[in-house]
Design brief:
Strand 28 and strand 29 form a beta hairpin. By secondary structure, the protein is α/β, with parallel strands linked by helices.
Length: about 800
């Protein structure tokens, strides 16, 4: 010990510290394996074990491959284990701990004592590399670590000063051990000796894989923290390790990103959950379904707005007359303004004209492009130019806001409130559209700073209601609200859900939609039965829900953003579990409003946002970055196939080719949409939503590309760099923009920007900036600039 202390100092110590500082620079604080339970604030070290013998032939294959590649069996097994961890964590930067004998001198080989040290073995796994390349990289990592094994782990932690937490161990949370030393038989006179397996309920780390070689066969012992993992999860992990190891050793030249991991049971399970093929009418349009409803029940109220109301016959007549008028419009050369299946823009406030205009566009054979009049002029101009809409329907008091100066194409403006169509025919028009024609184009946020138009067909919409009919049983007694902007696809569900089934559609005035108290009163007065809400909007309703059970609701359907189930407990405490039925749904514009269905019952408090199972006629696959399907519990990107997948993006062939793809899974090829959303399968076949895998967020139901906001901020003179993020505290979500001034000092009224940071230096060093960070001088010029180019919901609340 005295010799070691004297030797391990000075240059020897500095060289080893320098190596580990380089090797572990930028090491992720935590290996985020998908856990069954939230990580507790402090480790309890409660654990369990699972034993898994590998097939004898597999052990022989591992040994043979190791000899051929000039690596040890330890290195081969470690490389395969790291690939498993990479697949589970969706990370390419993988570190595990491993014990080492630490007897590097001949004089210490026979000394009695525990010299073992722990090494941190870090690897960067590239999906394109072959397993052979990974083996050689692992060999290099191990040899370098062995050459620097003298630095005690405790001293390494002291030198590197990683962020310390009672919830996990520093530098690594997963251990790998191989015991393949020759065992010595212990013999005592008159005694027969044997081993007794003892299952100690302890886990020193999140996960430890110990492999022992006995008679050429490998036995895997999985030790896991029961605070994090269920036994079934670790058993699945062990099965995936065996599948991976077998595939890697059979074809070591294959790119590791494409190596299969699913077991046969996994494949059968995923196929069963996606066995959703359903036959629906393929020839119905939105107009067909609406006019059928008018014919069967012409007199009930169809639409209500304030003190105004229209029956189904009145609404149909007004839409027919307007449609006839639109078809009579001509270009300067005398050709019909609307020919083929044209895109017709509509920019109106919430009103009767809104619904009449949408119906008239469809009856005239067009597809509508909804434009919120509150959008900035630049955004409206982009939508009109991009869609090449030959016609814009609006209201006379909005024409001053809808500046068409600089449009690159001719666009006729028609004011619905001042155009007299009373002399037009009132009867239904001949069919001018098919189910394969477009119904609408809705623009969503885009990373380039310009919104992108998603083209949705008539069949995309009609099959949505056919697919959900058995869930909801919508009928002519239902009263719906049009709460959301018609430029947001939740409105498609609200408008047509009411009108296809003979229900009543209550158009919510804008200011009522912004007042929870006023909206709650409207729900009572109009006896609304079907309410569609984003979780954040419903949370505000819960806060004003103090008037007893005066509501007539039978359904509350959530969508647009992740649902926090715990936030529903006050509602259940007040209303119980009988009525209304609360349902969580997931969906996006490109897959026609809704994709999954999950009914919620009283007392449900999942730790995550459970979104349910695919709708009939849709498939949902979860895949990794290499489009390999993932099994239960592992996060993967949501891919959606089936009848809801939209046609494409308008005028964006590159993006269409990237997001709408043909994919072969389990011998079947289908057209799917890559959502960019992250989820995982639960053991019961439900999906748990985990967030985004890119730079996109959901805020109050609106899909926002943070890159679009950053692109616009960067156009402002004086901004050198910017980052926009979503800040959430106490359930309140807000956009926050961080700015770096270019030195021109024009970001804030030409004055020098100063940060008023209420934080300690340590919090800044770790990146934990408080929300109180603000520009000390006026940033209103920048806000004005952004509001001229972005919708209000995309303008950051803090700078």
């Amino acid at each position: 010990a005295a010799w070691q202390r004297q030797w391990f100092q000075g240059e020897v110590l500095e060289a080893q510290v320098a190596y580990w500082a380089r090797q572990l620079d930028g090491l992720p604080e935590l290996l985020e394996l998908p856990t069954d339970k939230p990580r507790p604030p402090q480790q309890s070290y409660r654990g369990a074990h699972f034993n898994q013998p590998l097939p004898l032939a597999l052990g022989q294959t591992v040994s043979t491959l190791s000899r051929q590649q000039g690596v040890t069996v330890f290195m081969t097994l470690l490389a395969a284990f790291k690939l498993l961890l990479s697949r589970y964590s969706r990370s390419q930067d993988i570190s595990v701990g491993s014990p080492i004998a630490n007897r590097t001198h001949s004089h210490t080989e026979d000394l009695i004592g525990f010299f073992v040290n722990t090494l941190v073995l870090r690897s960067q796994l590239e999906p394109e590399q072959s397993f052979i390349e990974l083996l050689h990289a692992t060999r290099q990592t191990c040899l370098e670590a062995y050459a620097h094994q003298d630095l005690p782990f405790e001293m390494l932690v002291e030198k590197l000063q990683p962020t310390r937490s009672l919830s996990h161990s520093p530098l690594f949370q997963v251990m790998f051990v191989l015991q393949n030393n020759d065992t010595t038989e212990l013999a005592l006179p008159g005694l027969e000796l044997g081993f007794i397996e003892a299952d100690y309920p302890v886990a020193k780390f999140d996960l430890t894989l110990s492999i022992a070689e006995q008679g050429g066969q490998f036995h895997c012992y999985w030790e896991y923290a029961t605070d994090l993992f269920e036994a079934t999860t670790v058993e699945r992990m062990a099965a995936h390790f065996e599948v991976l190891l077998e595939a890697l050793t059979l074809n070591p030249q294959q790119a590791i990103g494409t190596v299969p991991m699913l077991t046969g049971d996994d494949i059968l399970r995923l196929q069963a959950w996606n066995d959703t093929a359903t036959d629906y009418p393929q020839d119905q349009t939105l107009v067909d379904l609406f006019e059928a409803q008018v014919e069967s029940a012409p007199d009930p109220i169809a639409v209500v707005f304030g003190d105004e109301s229209l029956t189904y016959t009145q609404l149909n007549t007004k839409a027919n007359r307007l449609a006839h008028y639109l078809l009579g419009l001509a270009k300067a050369d005398g050709q019909p303004l609307l020919s083929g299946n044209p895109l017709v823009a509509i920019a109106v406030e919430r009103s009767m004209e809104m619904v009449i205009g949408l119906l008239a566009i469809l009856k005239a054979g067009g597809a509508y492009v909804p434009i919120d009049p509150s959008y900035p002029t630049a955004r409206i101009r982009h939508m009109l130019d991009d869609s090449q809409a030959p016609l814009l329907l609006t209201q006379s008091h909005l024409t001053g806001l809808l500046s068409l100066y600089g449009l690159e194409h001719d666009c006729v403006v028609l004011c619905l409130d001042t155009t007299d169509v009373a002399d037009q025919p009132s009867e239904n028009l001949p069919t001018r559209s098919t189910a394969e024609d477009l119904a609408y184009v809705i623009y969503t946020s885009g990373t380039t700073g310009n919104a992108k138009g998603c083209q949705v067909t008539q069949l995309n919409v009609t099959r949505l209601f056919a697919a959900t009919e058995d869930y909801y049983h919508f009928n002519d007694r239902d009263v719906w609200t049009l709460f959301h902007s018609y430029a947001f696809d939740f409105s498609v569900w609200e408008i047509w859900g009411a009108l296809f089934y003979g229900g009543r559609l209550v158009i919510v005035p804008y200011f009522t939609s912004r007042s929870p108290e006023a909206f709650y009163q409207l729900l009572i007065e109009q006896k609304v039965t079907v309410l569609n809400q984003t979780p954040s909007a419903f949370k505000q309703l819960i806060n004003v829900d103090t008037q007893g059970n005066d509501l007539s609701l039978r359904l509350v359907i959530f969508g647009g953003e992740a649902l926090d189930f715990a936030a529903l407990q006050p509602w259940f405490s007040h209303h119980g579990d009988q009525q209304p039925q609360l349902v969580n749904m997931y969906g996006i514009t490109e897959t026609t409003v809704h994709v999954t269905y999950y009914p919620i019952t009283c007392g449900q408090t999942p730790s995550g946002s459970v979104i349910g199972k695919p709708l009939p006629d849709l498939t949902v696959w979860l895949v990794d970055a290499n489009l390999q399907p993932v099994p239960i519990g592992i996060p993967g990107e949501i891919l959606v196939g089936g009848g809801g997948v939209a046609r494409n993006y308008l005028n964006r062939p590159e993006l269409t080719a990237e997001k709408f793809i043909e994919l072969e899974l389990f011998g079947k090829t289908e057209r799917i949409y890559k959502t960019g959303d992250l989820a995982r399968w639960l053991p019961d076949g439900n999906l748990e939503f985990l967030g985004r895998i890119d730079h996109q967020i959901k805020l109050r139901g609106f899909r926002i590309e943070l890159g679009e906001i950053e692109a616009v901020i960067s156009q402002y003179a004086g901004v050198k760099e910017t980052v926009v993020s979503l800040h959430e505290a106490d359930g309140d979500k807000r956009l926050v923009a961080y700015l770096v001034d270019s030195g021109q000092c024009s970001v804030v009224s030409g004055k020098q920007a100063a940060l008023d940071v209420q934080a300690s230096p340590s919090s800044l060093a770790t990146g934990h900036w408080p929300l109180t960070t603000s520009l000390a001088t006026d940033h209103q010029p920048l806000v004005t600039f952004l509001k001229s180019r972005l919708p209000d919901y995309m303008v950051p609340a803090h700078f």
